[in-house]
Design a protein that fits this description.
This protein has helices at residues 3-21, 28-36, 41-68, 73-108, 141-146, 153-163, 169-178, 182-211, 223-241; strands at residues 114-124, 130-139. By secondary structure, it is mainly α. It has one domain. Strand 1 and strand 2 form a beta hairpin. Helix 2 packs parallel to helix 8 (182-211), helix 4 (73-108) packs antiparallel against helix 9 (223-241) and helix 7 (169-178) packs antiparallel against helix 8 (182-211). The longest helix is centred in the middle third of the chain and has 36 residues, at 73-108. The two termini are 32 Å apart.
Length: 243
């Protein structure tokens, strides 16, 4: 490989690690949702891996298609910036929605249990007295979790990360691709992807190992609401600071 190839590869690793480590949106959502939903470390890392693949893969596909149809580098970069803003607001929306759901869940719960009512039976006695019998049962946290319906958390996270761009990757990938050096472009994209996903996994794993030790006590039932708030703040950080 020539000097340009080595420079691009070194830059790909450096920028991937810095971009990921300095962007809390690359790991905080997984840690906070995983902590609130009591996910195992293996599940959190698996979700992080899939979202990381979608995150980097979407930028590679966009860059390839843009160059393939003859778009100028500046036009592709402008599209990536637009995606960055959209992904930030999408993360804010996800955090707000999840936080609101968590707040309602916490308000409705009492001491770790919820009371569910399943209608009533009406009994008419011989003397004409009518008795209404309401049926209730207590749900433990695990039972309550099972009744939440289809879990859309993963798909929401995945779509947000697919929408989110990898701005540092684009010039590194597009430069050799625009010159017809697709092999080098693919190698740079692959190196950037591995470095990005590895950093996401390491950061998520280390942070989850620390956060999972926290005992919130009475505040535990507010963990979903707090997770939503942190995710929304991460999205605002993207929008305001361009992280």
């Amino acid at each position: 490989m020539d000097a340009l190839s080595w420079e691009l590869l070194i830059a790909a690793v450096t920028l991937a690690v810095l971009h990921t480590a300095l962007g809390p949106d690359h790991y905080l959502p997984f840690v906070m949702i995983g902590r609130a939903r009591k996910w195992s470390m293996a599940r959190i890392l698996f979700v992080t891996l899939l979202c990381g693949i979608g995150h980097v893969g979407s930028s590679i596909v966009l860059g390839s298609v843009g160059i393939g149809v003859g778009m100028a580098i500046g036009s592709v970069e402008a599209l990536e910036l637009l995606r960055g803003s959209a992904s930030g607001w999408a993360l804010v929306a996800l955090g707000a929605a999840y936080g609101l759901w968590g707040w309602r869940r916490a308000v409705r719960s009492r001491h770790g249990f919820e009371v569910h009512q399943h209608g009533e039976d009406v009994h008419i006695h011989e003397e004409g007295t009518v008795h209404h019998h309401h049926h209730h049962h207590l749900l433990t946290p695990s039972h309550r979790h099972a009744e939440q319906g289809p879990n859309v958390t993963f798909w929401a996270l995945f779509l947000v990360f697919v929408l989110g761009p990898c701005e540092p990757l684009l010039p590194l990938f597009v430069t050799p691709a625009s010159e017809g050096r697709w092999g080098l472009a693919a190698l740079v994209g692959g190196v950037f992807a591995v470095a990005t996903i590895a950093t996401m996994l390491i950061a998520t794993g280390l942070l989850h190992a620390g956060v999972s030790r926290l005992r919130l006590g009475p505040l535990e039932r507010w963990s979903h609401a707090m997770a939503g708030g942190v995710i929304a703040l991460s999205g605002l950080g993207i929008v305001a600071l361009g992280l």
